[in-house]
């Protein structure tokens, strides 16, 4: 029997294109010789983490030689109180993306199909391929997930439907009745994963709390994260809420000690920092509304967003996304091209501080009016 000269990965793993995050500030500073750079590429909170969370994290550092609480009892207790659900309905995870992967591993495999939106979060097709399943991208309408299109793609092979609300990278939002109507029509044996990474921002734009749906739908998993409005992206903390039969399955797949002690402490403290969260949401709402009008006036706004970012259609600049990406970096601003999503004429920008937002806006004005052949200032 002839064996290969090295271990061979499964065929579908070889076809994967890894998730590529926004560029680090240090890399851009070094490449272009800049003394400062505004990063508005990764939807991070410009307000940072609450002081209480930072203090809680600092307090844990003396115990780095001790393993974390594997069950995250304090965080689970705090989440149970916040959402009014039983502790057995909660699954902790290293960021919400970790939970998406656990769901794929638990409920789909070779020969199965997974449905997601055309411009849905890039991790959905990645995690679908990781388990050997076939991904089905349902066409969107006006940059918005189309539940009817998703329903039309359901077959006997369908095991999971991923739906982000609001959606990344478009920022668009579906209302509660639309989601309920969708869930009413999905067969009970199919897991629906409602990804609500940006829900705290969406609530300020008329959004709804998807956790309220869990009691009515036994096939629903709602995912949340501490990486966005809570400002804890570096700590990797997230959680899911579902009925116990789903939560128990996901618990079996969680790696031991998947949340560090600093992550557990920081997330628990952040939940109680209501004033900081309110300020973060208010800042985002005010700046997003201002920038929505400004970019719309420039002819760049692709669609209105309920998140902490905007999707821009840069056709008016007569430049490619990569050209705009490079131009912005040369001038000290990191943005996010989204060609990998199939959005071939677009850039996504996060809502940063007022100064960062103004800097980016002036650069885009320059690109529209003068092109990218000269630098601003």
The string of secondary-structure elements, in order, is: HHEHHEHEHEHEHEHEEHHHEEHEEEH
Helix fraction? 25-40%
* Backbone CA Rg: 21 Å
CATH architecture of the largest domain: 3-Layer(aba) Sandwich
Strand content: 5-15%
Q: How many domains in all?
A: 2
Label the structural class. alpha/beta
Mean pLDDT: 94
Walk me through the structure.
- With 377 residues, the protein is α/β, with parallel strands linked by helices.
- The protein has two domains: 11-48 and 275-370, Aspartate Aminotransferase, domain 1, CATH 3.90.1150; 51-273, Type I PLP-dependent aspartate aminotransferase-like (Major domain) (Aspartate Aminotransferase, domain 2, 3-Layer(aba) Sandwich), CATH 3.40.640.
- 38% of the residues lie in helices and 15% in strands.
- The protein has 14 helices and 13 strands.
- It has helices spanning 11-14, 25-32, 51-60, 73-83, 96-107, 123-130, 147-152, 176-185, 199-202, 244-253, 261-271, 274-297, 321-330, 354-370, and strands at residues 38-39, 90-93, 113-117, 134-138, 158-164, 191-195, 220-225, 238-242, 301-303, 309-313, 333-334, 336-337, 346-350.
- The strands form three sheets. It has a seven-stranded mixed sheet with strand order 2-8-7-6-5-3-4, sandwiched between helices. Strands 9-10-13-12 form a four-stranded antiparallel sheet, with helices on one face. The chain has a two-stranded parallel ribbon with strand order 1-11.
- Helix 9 (199-202) links the parallel strand 6 (191-195) and strand 7.
- Helix 5 (96-107) packs parallel to helix 6.
- The longest helix is centred in the last third of the chain and has 24 residues, at 274-297.
- It is globular, with a radius of gyration of 21 Å.
- 47% of the residues are buried.
- The model has no long low-confidence stretch (mean pLDDT 94).
